[in-house]
Protein 1
Amino acid sequence: MPPNMGITRLSGIGWNSLSTCLSGSVLPREPKLCYSKEEVCHPQVQPSLVGFSAEGAQPRCLSHSLPLPLRYTDSPVNNSSYWPLDYPPLSGYQSWLCGQAMRAVEPASVELVKSHGYETPTSKIVMRWTVITADLLVYIPACLAAVYVFYGTSSSLSSSSSSPSGSAAAISRRARVLALIALLFNPAAIVIDHGHFQYNSISLGLTLAAVAAIGAGRQLLGAALFSLALNHKQMALFFAPAFFAHLLGWALHSQRHRGLGPKILAVGKLGLTVIATFAVCWAPYLSSKEAVLQVFTRIFPVRRGLYEDYVANWWCTSSLLIKWKAKFPAHILLRAAAATTLAAGAPAMAHQIMGRPARPIGGGGRGPTRWGLLRCLANSAFAFYMFSYQVHEKSILLPLLPVTLLAGEEPTLAAWLPILAAFSMFPLLERDGVALPYISLCALYGAVMAGPALSLARQLHQAQASSKARRRSGWLKLAVTGLSGWALRHWAVLASLAVAGNLALHAARLILPPPERLPWLHDRAFITAAFGGFALTFIYLQISQWLEGDDGGRGPAVTAQRKRD
Amino acid sequence: MITNAGAFLQLAVIATAIKLLLVPTYRSTDFEVHRNWLAITHSLPISKWYIEETSEWTLDYPPFFAWFEWVLSQIARFVDPAMLVVENLEYASGRTVLFQRLSVIVMDAVLLAAAYALARDVSSDDASSRPGGEGKSKPKKLQGLGLQADVAADQTTAAPATTSHSASIGRGHGNSSIRSESSGSNMRRSIVLFFLLSCNAGLLLVDHVHFQYNGVMMGLLLWSLYAARSGRHLLSGLLFAALLNLKHLFLYAAPVYFVYLLRHYCCEGTVLGPACAEAESGARSSTGKGSSKGSSSTRKGFGLGRVVVRLALLGAGVLAVFGVSFGPFIMMQQMPQVLRRLFPFGRGLLHAYWAANAWAPYAAADKLLAAALPRVAPWLGLDLEKLGLRIEPGAANMAGGLVRVSRFSVLPQVSPAATALAVLLALTPCLAALWAGDGRPGYMRRSIVRSVSYSFLSGFVFGYHVHEKAVLVALLPLAVDAVLTPSAARRFLLLGTAGNYGLLPLIFRPQEYGTKILLFLSYFFVSMVALGSIHAEVQLGPREAGVADDGAALQALFSPSKMQDGSTSPVKSGLERRTVKSPMKGAAVFGRMTKLYLAGFLAVELYVSIVHEAVPALRRRLPFVPLMLTSVYCSIGVLTVWVDMATEWVCEASLGWRKRRKH
């Protein structure tokens, strides 16, 4: 019996019961309450490298103590050099809520100016608990909703009807469990939110809810939810092209919109929804043009540079060969980044906007399907991560979101990409003192995902190989299927090679001190390795977007890409 | 036998990952205790080990544990030599913490290995060789449901096991072919057992938060039980002797081991021996691990010589173990000092925080009386002084505070001898039943775990100065039976809930509040659902339960309509529908009172962590109430389980002796 029957066994003994999944997913979030962050919270020393604990606390003070319009203005008490509020309004409101909670528990922690760097065990616990609460209220319900929409009904699996219904049911059950686990146990997301300290789960959860709403056919609700996500964290902008393209494509090609009138009406409705949502969020700042501009300059700090620290994206990785920052002025780089981002995101967007073609290109269809939306989201977020201006290591969480939701379709990809993402952030995590949880969470994720993902991938591959859909396959699809089949056969070797590579880099970092002239050598090695994996994934996702059928059925079974270190 | 190392590996990795996450959490003084012992064993000669008292945490475990610390200190030397200096009190550098934490995690491999061995062993158990009275009452019902596997197994055992050879063939046959259908359920059973043993929330909290090395010792105990179950009696006895020299807490099971080894190892197959000797040896050879003396039955009557040989072998082995351990100290004439360290009877009946045993309600009653009597006495016209009662005003402060001798103010004092007598009395029916046996084959295989668990539980309930952690020692062996019979599953869940909840006050910092509650709750729910699914299946038969079971919870949540038409199995009884409908089918193993009791924990927790904290008057005037409430409430569950087990042993003992008299 293969060593990957774990999930069936576990599901058999009730491990997949909901309570378990939920309590299990909160469990790894929990112990990190106890991590001491003293050593990383000295903003004056290393402004770009400090942990976010202080950064998280400051907006809370501001939101708590200042009247609304003043929160984004520079002033003696609200100095932009000490972690100003630089998230959109919704974050500000949420910080205000958290500030109220903090005040109830410990008033000193939210006093302006005085509380800079304030940290007591109680204040830390309350702040940590606010993140866990955000997870429980926003992210986890959104995960359940999204998994329900995408994997809940058997009708979405109709394309595999050629196989016996029993095995189809087994596949769908396994896919559902796998997607839920991938979303809930994603090590990169957990360690950033609960170790490094951020509220990504709210923005990501709102995005996920938007995806679920659109998948369930409530496009307007989806648009509103995504606007909220955007208003919580501008990082959600990574997804904006995908939502835009998908919704536009839907408005243009939906069966219900026949004729020009309904199409324009649909576009108008979407636009109105978005504008209304934004208006509600920005209401306090709409008093004057200056106020809005002030918020904008805070939210989009163009002056910060092309990238921060070490990011496994195109600009940072290639800067080893071409010193972008030194050779070109900032405004050129800004334009170059914008152009490349747009170019990289364009094919996926086009796929969503364009209608059903007469002759499929790669073997799949086109147009705005919900699975197409997921892939487009992944592509758009990857395009931004790879090429846009001012990218953080943490931005990898955005492409991870659609990929983890795709776990039932791309099991092996979802099994290793989150681990690689956590790996790419390791320099940051090490500075935060959360190296141990990083190890633990990655091991946990690997243990839970690897076996079931592989067996699901094999099942999907078989189901696809035997299905009648093969006859409409284009050459591209055949190539990808062949390649993925090869990868699946050699999975054990490839996976252990990748893990060995990872471990070797870790060991080198631990044992060998970097040469004096190259103090950044280890960081470089980490991001270069991660970049390789990300780039392959990106390419694969671009291709798979075009292989995506428009029958609401399964995409290509598995990925041919592996982690390459 | 079906092997599925993948699932076990998965669970082991998950358990280890959770342990790693717990590394930076709260450490109790036990961390310093063990660091100090590292220092003592590393830097002092053996002659000073039990004399050294620079730190207040003197070495008070038996010598093998000191040697264990010595081995660890050989590695610790390379990590941070400063932790090995006796004078470095309260030393806890980052590397020291990491080293000590990792040492616990790594040593837990013993537990994982033992759990794996037991889990594999359990999957080869068939229905008839399960412990308890179920074997007698269930089969008819099962046949009615068409449970072929169990019928087959029944026939195997119903046929008189004439020789060990044929018995082994019969059983082997049952194992390989007929039982293939239920092999899936056996697999599931062993995975559940592995989970119950390796992820126990109480053990995680005590070992990896509070800091102790219970995992290693529980691992050895489980190894010993595994050896006993698979018929390697000598190994089992020696392992237990070694265990005694690691931690003398395990002394409570010594009487059981004594009777078990005397009766079923030394006297096996002789005129002195148990009636079921043949089958016993049959069971041994069927597992393929028996000693070379498998054909004992043919030599019945000639065995007196063998008794002597085995007795000598066992005696020599046990003496050798104890000799290696205590020998040096006897040579150095330090035994009185060592024993004084090992058995500090000056500490009082109750620990600072009362363990959830029989003395908790006793002490609570005393406290209530002490508070109430001075006010009530004048009304009743009683003169307390005349009755010989002198109630001090500070009597209300017994729970909480440092380790100290606590005196009861109203009720009679309880001496160490009285507690020892109580424990021995409690053990008597169990020992009697063990001696008598029940005349059916595989008696020891079915009973050893239950009897050992019962003896630890008796020790916990009546022992002197018991720590709340000792409940784990009774709890873990019970898991083996819990996956085999529903009644044991009920017991395990009740004792696990009450015992583990009683451990929660150990970890008192607000930082770990969520961690401990989540660990406790998730272990409770997973074990409840898992055990429920196993035993629901026993009631339904594997096929029907398979339909009900495949991801029932999620399925029921996500597509309830599909669930209904999915179950088109021929037997669509009301029983099945009931279990399918309820996503919490694990709860079905409980009675109504038990459910009520379990729900009561919610109320207790609400009071302890919210109401009591929020009302300043309560905090000021009744500071001891949360701990008292916790231990008394938990003790209800523990005592219920104890009474349940004790009654069972009394019944078994009387049955067994009646049967013996007939022969």
Protein 2
Amino acid sequence: MACSATAQIIQPLSINSARSVDNSDACAKILNPSSFLVSTPRINKKLFSVNKSISPFARRSATVFAVSSDVVKEKKLKSNSSLSNLLITKEEGLELYEDMYLGRAFEDMCAQMYYRGKMFGFVHLYNGQEAVSTGFIKLLKKEDCVVSTYRDHVHSLSKGVPAREVMGELFGKTTGCCRGQGGSMHMFSKEHNVLGGFAFIGEGIPVATGAAFTSKYKREVLKEDCDEVTLAFFGDGTCNNGQFFECLNMAALWKLPIVFVVENNLWAIGMSHLRATSDPQIWKKGPAFGMPGVHVDGMDVLKVREVAKEAIGRARRGEGPTLVECETYRFRGHSLADPDELRDPAEKAHYATRDPITALKKYMAENKLAAEAELKVIEKKIDELVEDAVEFADKSPVPARSQLLENVFADPRGFGIGPDGKYRCEDPKFTQGTAHV
Amino acid sequence: MLRIMRNKLDAPVFTSPFLKPAGLALRSYSSSAKQMTVREALNSALDEEMSADHNVFLMGEEVGEYQGAYKVSKGLLQKFGPERVVDTPITEAGFTGIGVGAAFYGLRPVVEFMTFNFAMQAIDHIINSAAKTNYMSAGNINVPIVFRGPNGAAAGVGAQHSQCYAAWYGSCPGLKVLIPYSSEDARGLLKAAIRDPDPVVFLENELLYGEAFPVSAEVLDSRFCIPIGKAKIEREGKHVTITAFSKMVGFSLKAAETLAKDGIDAEVINLRSIRPLDRPTINASVRKTNRLVTVEEGFPQHGVGAEICASIVEDSFGYLDSPVERIAGADVPMPYAANLERMALPQVEDIISLENILKDVDENQGAPTSNEDQTPMMPLGVESNLGDAFHETETWQLNGASGLQVWEEVFW
């Protein structure tokens, strides 16, 4: 599995030196920073040098580090360099900001609507994790696929599904992207290649692997010019599930163009990742199957974007899958029904200081990429967009009674396709009962 | 799993079947018969569909280099190459999900399970990702996938390899469930399944793979396919309708031949499609014969026979001269010992003896029997000439005494 392409990765922030290990006190003994270095000696063929971040391990204990100051400090160092050394252009920065802000505003509106009774059932919000969605999905083409879990509103929005359609779906109206038949957990869009929205954790991973299989099949068997990539998003809890490992194996075995993105927010409802997992460092599970495993700070959209560029590029070039562990955090509970009592408020406060939107805002301000006023314009635009989506969904009609029995099958009457290639029920002789069976 | 036939009080006069000439309904074949085994039929169907559409590919354990665990995919690897005939690791959940994902995104996979027992590891994908997606996405994303493999009991393979899943998959909206018997069925239904835009569960039978059936020229044509959701009347008859699927069709046909010698003309329906179930055909048949026996290999509770019985009761209750009888496998996990296994599955003799009991009832018209055994929900001792060993499982009355009273009120 020798790969000749050497990955060029821009190290945005050489944080290794800046972040002192001593601060990690007890944690350092358990997980020393070197464990986060290049993923594995075996894969360390310089094909993928890893962008690392050493996270403050507020996990083991309640000791919390205010790291945001570090993060911002690093970015401040950067601002002295010329503009050409920056990671993003102004347009890209504004795009990223807009997308993250849309995710946040939308989810906040969902919470409001839920408590007002307009939305119902299970609603899982993505607040705090926007950097992962934006960082990855904004690098995709329209033909690339995204497969997600039940926490899929923001993935759909980032991929391009209009906010109106997502809100309509959440309200259960017929104007939703799935005509109100899917709901919060099942966002499907053929046009934007969002392949769901799955309630079972781990269910989306094989489906994503299958979409990647299709890309490869199209390229190799059907000889089409196809370099579509699939992203599979899932959480830390899923990484203990059998299907995850089955798919890591097959994706690496067949070198499928897929990126497995782990949104490690440390909590699976009320189950801490550390209580559930024998080895909590998920990125290590990649090399065990022969693919690079990368760990990145998921609260920083720029770092995520850099890693994503590399991973998606690998997949597009046909070099195979990558496992990316994004360390992130959800500011709200698991779902809107979750009282969220088990998480330490200090931990929540700590991560709140690392809010990805504020961080990007600061970065852009310090590097003179965008003025405060420009960002305010974007925020206003997004607020209006979300309000409009709510109004639209509110005014939309509920599904008609006839919709209940529609769409069970693609085949209208269930009689299958005849020898002439058309649906049998369309053949008048068949429906009259005179066709020879 | 036999039930006592309750004698009807003041039953309407019924022409004794003895007065009618016993005749065998002839099976008609289109033209001179070429013999083809079910295995060859499946292989040729796969071959032709994969040649016709390059989006079709086969995936499963041992389908490639091993030429198929039951040699159904023999020669396909050599013809189509390893990208289209994919040998998978032993990861049912994983590769079934991969098949579903490929179907979401535009290909037409055929996922083979070594037996449908193993498909239980992947049943989440069959039901939750495949069956429900067209509905959940409101028609956005359809799933043109076929899940196929042997189903039901083989010979001496034990409890974990012998379950029949027709009833389980048949209860799920969003799935089409097909279950062939002969080579013609196998070829036509598999071709229809592969061309179909929806998820199809294709339940084969290991013991039928080697059985040869005559096939006409029409069946051998590459465009041949059978409609989904239509049952086939394998043998016409007048006195009793027997519905069956898969191996039980063969048993029912044999039983019908024996019964014909006694003057009982049985109509045998090969269901072919469990979902959608061909209720019109079954109902029409029962309205003609007035009696129904359902035969299946699977467990009795919530089985296919239960659904057929309910359907007939709902739609053709007035036409029934006697309650619907179900013949099903024994309500136990499949034992290993050969004699026990034989007892746990319906055999030809069971079907015959039931018809004889039906015949006995007709002969005793007008003689009221005591109703002491009609307490609802009591296990019945079953009378039969097969001996006690077969009837160790308890049988439950479907209709209690109250049911009978209602019937009387309505009809007399």
